[in-house]
Design brief:
By secondary structure, the chain is α+β, with helices and mostly antiparallel strands. It has 10 helices and 11 strands. Strands 2-1-11-10-9 form a 5-stranded antiparallel β-sheet. Strands 3-4 form a two-stranded antiparallel ribbon. β6 and β7 form a beta hairpin. α3 crosses α6 and α5 packs across α7. The protein is globular and about 65 Å long. The termini are close together.
Length: about 325
């Protein structure tokens, strides 16, 4: 995938949303632990748990889930501020392709990956509810996975969130997460609204006894009915969104593409992106939730043309 899309690095993490078991986890570039001294130390930390990125449009499904769960919108709610760019505190917010969809439903906002529509959603939610759901989805603190060197990017203190910060967070910019935090949060949608603790070791087997590691029961962060609704919105996004050309036939997949600019020395790089796709399948009885991230793909900057087809493969 890195070679195919010309990315400088990438990662994939696959989790069972029902219990948090990590089914697969890989990152490139990597190193051979048997000859670790031959490699640069910068390759030692596991990027899935130790590096942060801005999730971009994949984050939209979590903000939309929060809005639906708190009753401020429904899938049929129409956006009455989606006819053109929005000005928030002197900043202009546009859609990714400068196309606008007046009176879009919330389902269409996710399908079109509409930044302006998501600003409307964040305004309906308000600061207190949005921040509460972001924290409940597990951001701002470590997941507690049984691996060393997990980091957790800090959230901005509650009192420092300005209107522009709430607006950009609604489409996943200006907020940093780890890949594991992201796949875990979307896993809650796949798991009827319950957030579980990720783990790698299932059982310790010794010469005289075996020890089964207890599995965390999980925490209900959105209603089961909300999870069902947002799942259908994600299925629609896969079937009718920008990456529909790559979807394998015969599967019901719930997912969302993401393309985020990369912050460099206080501003965003105009050229470089992190492309990603997060989703779960089968949508009705998910066996896995998976996140693919590609840093600086050169064949295309868009998640729909790089990370999504890789995920579908």
């Amino acid at each position: 995938g890195l070679r195919r899309y010309g990315a400088v690095s990438g990662s994939v993490v696959v989790m069972d949303p029902k219990n948090g078991a990590i089914l697969a986890m890989a990152s490139l570039p990597s190193y051979d632990p048997a000859y670790y001294w031959k490699y640069d130390k910068s390759l030692f930390p596991n990027p899935v748990i130790a590096s942060s990125y801005e999730p971009g449009s994949t984050f939209k499904v979590l903000v939309m889930a929060a809005a639906i769960d708190s009753g401020v919108v429904s899938p049929e709610t129409r956006c009455d501020k989606c006819a053109g760019p929005r000005n928030i505190s002197g900043y202009t917010i546009r859609t990714w392709n400068d196309k606008y969809f007046p009176d879009s439903t919330m389902t269409e906002v996710i399908q079109h990956s509409d930044n302006v529509g998501m600003v409307f959603v964040s305004e309906r939610l308000g600061k207190e509810k949005l921040l509460a759901y972001i924290k409940n989805f597990g951001f701002g603190k470590p997941t507690g996975i049984d691996l060393q060197e997990e980091t957790s990017p800090p959230l901005r203190p509650d009192g420092e969130w300005k209107p522009i910060d709430l607006a950009t967070a609604s489409f996943g910019q200006g907020i940093a997460v780890t890949p594991l935090q992201m796949v875990r949060a979307v896993g809650a949608i796949a798991n009827k609204g319950k957030l579980v603790k990720p783990f790698v070791v299932k059982k310790i087997i010794g010469e005289e006894k075996e020890k089964e590691i207890p599995i965390s029961p999980g925490v209900q962060v959105i209603k089961s009915s909300t999870a069902t609704v947002i799942t259908e919105m994600m299925v629609n996004a896969v079937d009718n969104g920008e990456a529909k050309w790559a979807k394998p036939k015969g599967f019901r997949i719930a997912g969302k593409t993401g393309t985020a600019q990369i912050p460099v020395a206080g501003h965003y790089d105009e050229e470089k992106t992190i492309a990603s796709f997060v989703g779960f399948a089968p949508a009705d009885e998910p066996k896995f939730v998976m996140l693919v991230t590609l840093r600086e793909p050169t064949s295309s900057p868009w998640g729909s043309e790089t990370a999504a087809p890789l995920w579908f493969d």
